[in-house]
Inverse folding.
DNA sequence: CCATGATAATTTACGATTCAAATATTAGAG
DNA sequence: CTCTAATATTTGAATCGTAAATTATCATGG
């Protein structure tokens, strides 16, 4: 694929170094994400007594004031339907969201934020955004733009790789 | 903090756009990581019948042939001690790792790969590395280097942010 | 109308994860 | 030596997450 001048760098060696480079890159990316995510989880818990998945679900609903079906939440949150059922149950118990019957299709509910849920979410979202700005604050504007562009490349490619099956 | 020439871009507006930029960046990063991680989990499960956490634990042990204490595993894997206990239990049941008594400190164990565990791990690691190369293959060599450097900046900063406590 | 297949959500069983509390051992001050 | 504090691990309860099976409803061809 690529030309190389060094005598040592035959296909074999190059492949290996490419491999460890990609692997290290992935491990670093994973570490960064986990680091930030752990901070967010911890702060949501100590300051608002909420978990990240519940916050995420509310966040989806806030963007869709007309409400969402369980299956739509599942797709958007990239988790299974069973999981959404559980998280929704708890938010309903806490009075932050409601399941409304859907007259068009009695198999499906419409899940919506309650007024209380919307009010509380707005407060949390404000803090959440500050935390993100703080945690990503080590990068300059330009670096963040570069980063965003690189992630777009990654997302497009990785998202296109077929699920499994192949060896 | 930064000067701006546009009349519209007062502090308020700029702050807001910086905020949503950082937020979008974070959401994209999270989505990418989850996408790749889900692929790896799925493939480890279908092709080797193992979970990602178990693979990770074995991976740590493979890098430390002399074995590791539970607490060291916990630190390196960035998970709680209780979690390590559970994952180790299962790997012990499967005969892939052993808990050895530590004569120096009877509170602590030394966890090691068994010969069988090491053999199996090597096979899995080989495939794992291929998958990573495949999934990150959308980026050029240069892009991967840039990405790695940007992650270093992020890791340093985010790792330095104090845990919680502050408003 | 009705049989069949697709779709929406839930349930069940299990693994992973966290936090907080409990247990066991070590280390150090007096 | 003994009390106390620190360290290493485990346990238990709660949440999150997946996959597979189940239930209820819809939609369509005959």
């Amino acid at each position: 694929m690529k030309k190389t001048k060094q005598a040592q760098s035959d296909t074999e060696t190059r492949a290996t170094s490419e491999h460890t480079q990609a692997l290290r890159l992935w491990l670093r990316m994973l570490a960064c994400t986990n680091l930030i995510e752990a901070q967010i989880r911890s702060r949501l818990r100590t300051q608002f007594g909420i978990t990240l998945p519940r916050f995420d679900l509310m966040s989806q609903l806030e963007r869709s004031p007309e409400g969402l079906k369980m299956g739509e939440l599942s797709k958007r949150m990239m988790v299974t339907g069973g999981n959404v059922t559980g998280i929704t149950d708890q938010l309903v118990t806490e009075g932050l969201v409601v399941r409304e019957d859907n007259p068009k299709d009695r198999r499906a509910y419409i899940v919506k934020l309650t007024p209380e849920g919307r009010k509380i979410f707005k407060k949390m979202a404000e803090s959440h955004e500050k935390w993100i700005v703080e945690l990503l604050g080590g990068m300059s504007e330009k670096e963040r733009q570069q980063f965003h562009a690189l992630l777009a490349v990654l997302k497009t490619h990785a998202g296109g790789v077929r699920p499994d099956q192949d060896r």
